[in-house]
Amino acid sequence: MAQRERHIFAAGNTARGYRTFYDSVLEGMERVYILTGVVEGITSGLIETIGNELGRKTNHIEWIHSPFMNGQYDGVIFHEWKAAIMDGSYPRIWRPSAPGVTEIQVNLQTCVGIDQLTRYKGQIGAWYEEIFRISEEAYAAYGEALRIHDEWEAPYIANLDREKANRVTEEVLALFFGDESLGKESRVRRMYLGAATPQGPVDHIMQLTDHLEKRYFLKGRPGSGKSTMLKKLVSEAQKRGFEAEVYHCGLDPHSLDMVIVPEKGLTIFDSTAPHEYFPSKETDEVIDMYERAITPGTDEKYQEELMDIKVRYRQKMQEATALLGGAKELREQLNNVYQEVTDQPRLKAVAQAIMSRLARMS
């Protein structure tokens, strides 16, 4: 059974820069309203207002959270109506590329007192430049953290019994699919497991998985084959015609952290820091790749080396998080200026117009 309300990340502050999965998340939508002309502090409030109002009239709403400002939204999706409302402010310059999507640009500049905004012109330009500079520094720090993470993986990769790892993967594929195939085209929907935010790593794993019949908590060390297993699971789902929700790593978009197969009511996810969880339901089960496929004693053998790596990794992650915090403070100043010069009754009228259009689709 589908959840009535879901919370996801479709964009991320990653080691490879700002990256989104908007096209994948919005595949199948027929109408996408893109809010432009202002800043996220205005668009997020509008998205939240519309989502809260119309959420009572639909059975399936999905909130897309912002990785830049905790508690704010990049978008809201109404699946029953095949419609979405998306923030089009910097740096989310994006246009849907999927066929069949009607893109509706909503320029909110008409709600802003341009004359009042003009006196802040120089300051606004300086804020944007500084936000860009600090964000790039944060991405560089995350990039260094990922390189250190590669060092962390090395001892475990060297001590990985690939035959045993493949055996565990085959067991997981059998648990998920058995001999079953659906004989239809598969759909894969991609997003992020969580996001690097100014308050550190944030995820919605428990909310996304609590309703599922079975959850497999994938434990193990870096380099123990977790992401490789998940990629094979996605490939198998595609071959057999199953839908798959694929959740990428918030640090490295090339790596996978969770897969949900909705038609089977099953999920398996990387349950190690910074998204470490433990079984809380009778049906939950742990699969430990360290125990199953890594040479015993590897932790102890490389103890000093691993300690140094962990310290350096933690320092780089903290540095990157602090930089995101600095960019957040500038974003807040920018948002405050726009809030000051925004015509709230006019903004409310725009929200009402969008809601009226969407309500007619119900």
Number of strands: 16
State the distance separating the first and last CA atoms. 20 Å
Strand content: 15-25%
Largest beta sheet: strand ordering = 1-5-6-7-4-8
Arithmetic mean of pLDDT: 95
Main sheet: strands, sense, barrel: 6 strands, mixed
Number of helices: 11
What are the segments in which pLDDT stays under 50 over at least 5 consecutive residues? Answer: none
Structural class: alpha/beta
Shape: globular
Helix share, percent: 40-55%
Helix-strand sequence: EEEHEHEEEEHHHEEEHEHEEEEHHHH
Radius of gyration (Å) = 22 Å
Task: Walk me through the structure.
- The protein is of the alpha/beta class.
- The protein has helices at residues 22-25, 40-54, 114-118, 121-158, 162-177, 205-209, 226-240, 289-293, 298-301, 303-341, 344-359, and strands at residues 5-8, 11-14, 17-20, 31-36, 61-65, 73-78, 83-87, 102-107, 188-192, 194-197, 200-203, 214-219, 244-248, 256-261, 266-270, 285-288.
- The strands form four sheets. Strands 1-5-6-7-4-8 form a six-stranded mixed β-sheet. A six-stranded mixed β-sheet has the order 9-13-14-15-12-16.
- The radius of gyration is 22 Å and the shape is globular.
- The model has no long low-confidence stretch (mean pLDDT 95).
Topology:
Blueprint: E1 5-8, E2 11-14, E3 17-20, H1 22-25, E4 31-36, H2 40-54, E5 61-65, E6 73-78, E7 83-87, E8 102-107, H3 114-118, H4 121-158, H5 162-177, E9 188-192, E10 194-197, E11 200-203, H6 205-209, E12 214-219, H7 226-240, E13 244-248, E14 256-261, E15 266-270, E16 285-288, H8 289-293, H9 298-301, H10 303-341, H11 344-359
Parallel strand pairs: 1-5, 4-7, 4-8, 9-13, 12-15, 12-16
Antiparallel strand pairs: 2-3, 5-6, 6-7, 10-11, 13-14, 14-15
Helix pairs in contact: 2-11, 4-10, 5-7
